[in-house]
Q: What sequence folds into this?
């Protein structure tokens, strides 16, 4: 059996130990005589699986009881609608602010506009100069002290890791420091969820599609402060009203049971690795090694300004774009898969989530050296 190094942005590599355990338990989970896929979501076995997943996630991210943890569906794209449907009416102005730093935050704002008003608090869509260096649009991030937050907004949306552009906000701001203590910070953390410690207590809510760092596609993890629940707009579908989902502990309707089970196995794997602080150290080492190699010569170009670079998604270009196809072909021959950049930007992108070991990153670095030597 050959397992390749999978650099896909998502769905993406899962820890091998998790896949093996799932395989072992496929036909009979814990003596239940059935697969998790076949169980009632209301039965004692699945209730145990779901409760453990929630407890482990709370432990990993130090989530207090002030927050509800919900397992929902529809991915982060549906959440772009579910968030405004639930949170716009938490304050009378029914408007939301957005930090626009790439395709995902742009989509979030566009979706919000279907249900209420929105305002751009900050954006990286223009060129700027940092440390005397001109940065192209989309290759830098606006620091929180430059954000113009409307203090009357219901919430401020931040995509803390733009998966396509490869831009990551290392720390989440305190809204009081931005002169807007009443505004709830809402974070789309989909593509770096659980890759580092995250201060949930600074937020009104955090959401993440699971299919990068937390599990398979199909479950969206929603962590929402309880005082923000109970304000859904009348048009909000009942299955998406946080009031119903929180009251029924994610069982208002049939949840994506198998995806929750796998996410639960990933949470246990993360705990065995030493938790998110240990994962962060490993992720720093992997990202540093990769970006150092990309920066070593001008054969490759990583366009994002170093202070804004994502540890999870590293976009890069070959100086000579006519070599792109040969680069991808050679990579695949060496078992380095899914390195094509997003269709909207071209070039390459290496996604190196929690489940990608240093060994896989080193294999990519060796190939980058080899390809440059052959073609440079
Ligand atoms: N937000 C971010 C940051 C993402 O990376 C993605 C998916 N790549 C989405 C939202 C959309 O997620 P989904 O496809 O699960 O709806």
A:
């Amino acid at each position: 059996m050959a397992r390749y190094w999978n650099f896909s942005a998502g769905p993406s590599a899962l820890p091998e130990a998790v896949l093996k355990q799932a395989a072992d338990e496929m036909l009979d989970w814990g003596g239940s005589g059935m697969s998790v896929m076949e169980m009632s979501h209301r039965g004692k076995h699945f209730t145990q699986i779901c409760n453990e997943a929630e407890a482990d996630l709370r432990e990993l991210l130090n989530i207090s009881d002030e927050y509800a943890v919900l397992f929902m569906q529809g991915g982060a794209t549906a959440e772009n609608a579910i968030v405004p449907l639930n949170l716009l009416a938490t304050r009378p102005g029914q408007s939301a602010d957005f930090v626009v730093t790439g395709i995902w935050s742009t989509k979030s704002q566009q979706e919000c506009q279907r249900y209420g008003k929105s305002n751009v608090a900050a954006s990286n869509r223009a060129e700027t100069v940092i440390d005397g260096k001109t940065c192209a649009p989309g290759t830098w991030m606006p620091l929180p002290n430059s954000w113009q937050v409307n203090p009357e907004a219901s919430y401020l949306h931040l995509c803390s890791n733009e998966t396509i552009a490869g831009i990551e906000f290392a720390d989440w701001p305190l809204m009081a420091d931005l002169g807007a203590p009443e505004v709830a910070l809402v974070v789309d953390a989909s593509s770096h969820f659980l890759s580092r410690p995250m201060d949930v207590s600074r937020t009104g809510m955090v959401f993440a599609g699971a299919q990068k760092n937390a599990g398979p596609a199909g479950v969206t993890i929603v962590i929402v402060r309880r005082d923000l629940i109970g304000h859904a707009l009348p048009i909000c579908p009942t299955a998406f009203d946080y009031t119903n989902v929180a009251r029924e502990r994610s069982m208002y309707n049939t949840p994506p049971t198998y995806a929750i089970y796998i996410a639960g196995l990933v949470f246990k794997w993360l705990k065995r690795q030493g938790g998110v602080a240990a994962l962060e150290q490993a992720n720093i080492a992997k990202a540093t090694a990769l970006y150092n190699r990309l920066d070593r010569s001008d054969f490759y170009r990583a366009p994002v300004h170093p202070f804004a670079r994502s540890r999870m998604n590293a976009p890069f270009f070959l100086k000579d774009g006519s070599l792109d196809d040969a680069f991808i072909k050679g990579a695949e021959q060496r078992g380095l898969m899914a390195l094509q950049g997003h269709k909207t930007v071209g070039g390459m992108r290496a996604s190196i989530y929690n489940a990608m070991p240093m060994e896989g990153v080193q294999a990519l670095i060796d190939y980058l050296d080899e390809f440059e030597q052959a073609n440079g």
